[in-house]
Amino acid sequence: MKSFRRLVYPYLIWAGVLIVLPMLIIVFYAFSTEGNDVIPVKITLENFVRFFSDTIFIEVLGRSLKLAVITTIVCILLGYPAAYFISQLNPDSQSVMVLIVTLPQLINMLVRTYAWRGILLNIDIAPELKVYIGMVYNFLPYMILQIYTSLSKMDPSLVPAAHDLGCDDRMAFLKVTLPLSVPGIISGITLVFLPAVSSFFIPKLLGGGSYVLVGNLIENYFVTTGDWNFGSAISLIMTIVILISMYFTKKFDYDQEAA
Amino acid sequence: MKKYGFLKKSYLALIIGFFYLPIIYVVVFSFNASRSLTSFTGFSLQWYEKMFASRPMMESIYYTVIIAVIATAVSTVAGTIVAIGLSKSHRIIRQVVTQVNNLPMLNPDIVTAIGLMLFFSTLNIPTGFGTLLLAHIIFCIPYVILSIMPKLRQLDDNLAEAAMDLGCTPLQALWKVIIPQIREGIVSGALVAFTMSFDDFVISYFTTGPGINNISTYVYATTKRINPSVNALSTIIVIAITTILIFANVLPMLRERRKRNEKTA
Fold first, then answer.
1. Does residue B202 contact residue A82 with C-beta atoms inside 8 Å?
2. Worst-scoring range by mean pLDDT, A86-95, A134-143, B243-252?
3. Of B26, B38, B86, which is closest to residue B232 (Cα–Cα)?
4. For chain A, which residues make up each domain, given as ranges?
5. What ranges do the domains of chain B cover?
6. What number is the ipTM of this complex?
7. Among the four A66, B84, B152, B192, which has the fewest Cβ within 10 Å?
8. pLDDT in tens, B121-174
9. Looking at the domain that runs over B56-228, which CATH code has it been given?
10. Do A109 and B201 touch (CB under 8 A)?
11. A 105-134 residues with CB < 8 A to B
């Protein structure tokens, strides 16, 4: 059976060349600029200095984080009751509801966002609000399904047990159900916050180009202006910001479990 | 208590309404007689006619399907082979591969996308159908491995050994003993790969070349002006996916119910 080990070797090379190497190329581009004829590339911190010395870029990064945080919070607030109510239905209705929630998710994200564009043309609201509606719409199903999964794994005898021990409905929910569904909320946050920070077509399609986020910046520097070095630096900064946020989310999760 | 139940149902109905509103909206406006996206002026099939007559639109459907099919087939076979190899590998190799696979799954799509774009350009590979397909295979394999690994962990190691003691070659043991037991994982891996590829926009956008569009990149490119044929295209996607989902979910559910009824009868 040990001979099966060799099956992995080709993939080690594949993953090294096609997954790890591209990431290293981004790092290399981020720390360099195009040089002159004699020295084609120059290793430098220039791109990062440029990003952090311009308030516009910081503003865009802040706006993206704000959008991602608010989207995530709204998804939790709207998604938790939905997931909770679904978990209280009878088993057959539960699977039908999961199917109903999953179905729109399987339809191409671009197509769904395009559909919102038509509806929102009828409504006169700030472009920012349109972007928020589109974001919540796209990410809410992920949150509902994650929270639902953790709620449905819960032992159904726990809540009656809490009642027997003198809890009312509210206390039983706060002391038993809610803490046990925290892992679902955390994985929901991962699935919503991460892609929300870097999203660029929802703001572009619904915000009408006036609402620039960090994802739009990266797109612009790669597709329009062709300044790949600066674009790489922006994506590196964005990735680091996401990693830091995820670290704190995970840490919160562990602290909760420990407490 | 009854009033409370009504509130719950109304809330769920509102959420469902929110989810389906845009879908119903595109379906209705795909039959609109005018170009407008805000007022319905009458029934017409002209946007469907225009869609079928539009070469770039039909090509985008063709590329989406052909790439999803090839990427699913390749990544399912490759992912299965790698997962089986990993289950017999040293722990360190297993951890390294898991960490590396996490990169495309946890990184924002746009980072994976520009990484590949820079990679292709560094090697002077012209972007087009080939790079698009390769990119899809690259990001699908980790998902296939992820779906199969739990099934392999549940597998009894002695079964394959026993098969070989009874005269199977390692390849026969693989085909007759291991594969049938992890079949469920392989199927769900293939489904994930197919939906990931079919839906992908960000990675396709940065790795495709001139003239090669999938549905997502086509829709993105045409949204600068109003094009109601996109509504017709969306409607067809909605119908196709709903049909597939009904066949995949409702039929087994009905079959199970019939089985249950037969047992009680």
1. no
2. B243-252
3. B26
4. 2-46, 55-258
5. 56-228
6. 0.87
7. A66
8. 999 999 999 999 999 999 999 999 999 999 888 888 788 888 888 888 888 888
9. 1.10.3720.10
10. yes
11. 106-112, 114-119, 121-122
